[in-house]
Amino acid sequence: MTTTFNSAYAGTQRIRVALIGCNHRTAPVSIRERVSFSAEQAAHAADELCSRGILEEAVVLSTCNRSEVYGVSAAGPDPVSEMENFFVRFHGLSSVDLNSSLYRQTGTEVIRHLFRVAAGLDSMLLGEAEILGQLRGAYSRALEHGATGPVLNKAFQGALEVGKRVRAETEVGARPMSVALAGVRLAEQVFGDLRGHSALIVGAGTVAEQAVEHLRNRGIGSLRVANRSLDRAQQLARRFGAEPLAWESVDRVLGQPDIIVSSVSAPGPVLTRESLERAISGRHGRPMFVIDLGVPRNVAPEAAGLYNLYLYNVDDLGEIVEQNRKAREAEIPRAEAIVEEQIRKFESWRVALESSSIADDLRTRFHSERDALLREKLGTMSGVSPEERARIAEITQDLIDRVLEDPTKRLRHGGGMRGRLGAIEAIRHLFGLDESAHTRKGSKD
Amino acid sequence: MGHQLAYLTLVLYAASCALYVRVLYAPQARHGWLPTLLLGAAIVCQYFALLERSHWIHSIPYDDLYGSMSLFAWLLAVTYLGLELFHRNRSVGAFVTLLLTIWTTALRIAVPEAPPPPPVANGPLFAFHVTLNTWAYSAFALSFVLSLIYLVQDWVLRSRKLSVTFWRFPALDVLDRMSQSSVYIGLLALISGASFGLVWRHRLSGSYSWGDPKVIVTLAILIVYAAYLALSRIPAWRGPRAAVLCATNFLIVLFSYTFVNLYLTRFHRFI
């Protein structure tokens, strides 16, 4: 999008940013699933909002936990109610169905909300990183469809920067929040890069599957899956490019993997201290990391005392996850500070552009008043020659330019942001610029 | 000028330390390479400070305690920077630069800079001998720091008392490899340095002075560190036990660098 603010919003002065949507805090999944947008629907909805003239710019963000429409309106009636009508109609619902589930925001609050979403502060799992990719995707799609403009471009680029900064400069998204990931991250603290290492997964249930996924994501070198039912082991192994292993072979290969993840349902330990002692003795001193995710425990607790063997069970990992949750929460103020800093940057940009725009509009308004006055007065003055008329027009134009020179400078460059915002509002009010913009837009339509 | 350079070195080490701490807490932060750059700048600055001092005394500055300690700090920083670049891991930097900052501050405060001793024309062999041995000691000091961090990490992993910084520390495997690299550097420097010293001594007096306590302790250091490298490959020793051994070995280095130098030897005494 190469449109500049001034060309996109010339003569409109007030930029109204609005948001309507619902998330996991305001709506149960039964509602959220009814108002979600597919990628195509999101792009189509943004297009439609702009083509119908409801909004100048629009981005639709839809994830499993939220459906939101961000919009910019430059003139006309309240954009929020029009956005709400559109949102409700798009999903074939009535306002009554969604009334208590929707949040409606305008102005700086929209930017704050967007930046907090990008930071992961509004996520179900505090600090989760996935939202940043989803936000980037939603923005890119809207950008490709030409539904964004200078304001949402600036807002979403700012949001992506907030997301990156919060994850880089705070611990909000740093530590693992699931037992499976916590186990894998701990293994990394022993072995470093997992690419040259191997793992054995004992079990093929949901938790084992999570561990396999995390190990694969972190580039584990080789992976084997053993399960009592070889079929299930084969299924899981196929999905993640692992090697299936017969249950009877587990003891034989126990010394080979660097990481063992066990998650089977068994009344007693599946891996005894003796079997692990044999395994570790054949490893030439290389350490072994054992993650026991089973309840009852799959690994004999006495094995924790073996030299160079690190054993973590589900309670240990649960405690770590709890510690991590608290640590993430403790980082919220730092993340919020980054959000506020970026909001100030955005607002400063917005005020600069609005100042520039209102100064131009004020000048246009004065010139049109002057033209009308000259037409009215000079029309009745028959003794004025064309040269004199031109001279009078020139002088009055100079007068307007001279009178507006200092206020324009002050609007564009002077004072703090709050002072300039106050001045903009005062000028709008005193000179009725909103009304005149409205009238002009109405007459254009 | 020498003082300004020394103070600038101190400031750069301190700034580098502060940024390494930042990297420890926010490894993805922008400009993560900045602490390394500042450490490099501190090394360059300290090099010029040492160079100036060596111009002043017409020798490598190891003849007095101040010069010797400065040279030690500089070689420690150089060794660490090499290891950081080789192993591509910055998380130990906070500890090493903290040590360097304290060391350099202590040098500025505690050791009054007395006029350097009159130059002794010992020749290049002697200069290599002392410089390489100092380098060896600094590399062993680094392996000591790395082994201590290893042992703390291992204890944290076993006790499950995971702190904020735990997740930012290098993996045990990386610490182990960095420590071994450091010991390799130290051993190579010590063997070369000791050989230069023996040749120099032989040229000077026709004997090798095998009975000198410093020579005996140096041989002991060679043996214990070689034993560390050998044992760290044996299953029963690999891991925390090898780290304990490496950390303990450094006590002999400290003994050699301080007590032996100051009280037991005639040839290796600081002036």
How would you portray this structure in words?
With 445 residues, chain A is an alpha/beta fold. Chain A folds into three domains: 5-174 and 328-349, Glutamyl-tRNA reductase, N-terminal domain (Beta Polymerase, domain 2, 2-Layer Sandwich); 179-322, Rossmann fold, CATH 3.40.50; 356-444, no CATH class. Chain A has helices at residues 5-8, 29-32, 39-51, 79-90, 95-98, 108-119, 130-144, 150-169, 179-191, 206-217, 230-240, 250-253, 273-281, 314-330, 332-378, 386-413, 417-431, 433-444, and strands at residues 16-23, 57-62, 66-73, 103-106, 198-202, 222-227, 243-246, 259-262, 288-292, 309-313. In chain A, strands 7-6-5-8-9-10 form a six-stranded parallel β-sheet. A four-stranded antiparallel β-sheet of chain A has the order 2-3-1-4, sandwiched between helices. In chain A, 41% of the residues are buried. The model of chain A is unreliable at 1-7 and 440-445 (pLDDT under 50). Chain B is mainly alpha-helical and 271 residues long. Chain B is built from eight helices and no strands. Chain B has helices spanning 2-25, 34-57, 65-87, 93-109, 123-159, 172-205, 213-231, 240-264. The longest helix of chain B is centred in the middle third of the chain and has 37 residues, at 123-159. Chain B is globular, with a radius of gyration of 19 Å. The mean pLDDT of chain B is 85. Classes of the chains: A alpha/beta (445), B mainly alpha (271). The A-B interface holds A 167-171, 174-175, 185-186, 188-193, 281, 283-287, 304, 307-308, 310, 312, 316, 319-320, 323, 327 and B 25-26, 28-30, 153, 157-158, 160, 162, 164, 166-167, 169-174, 233-241.
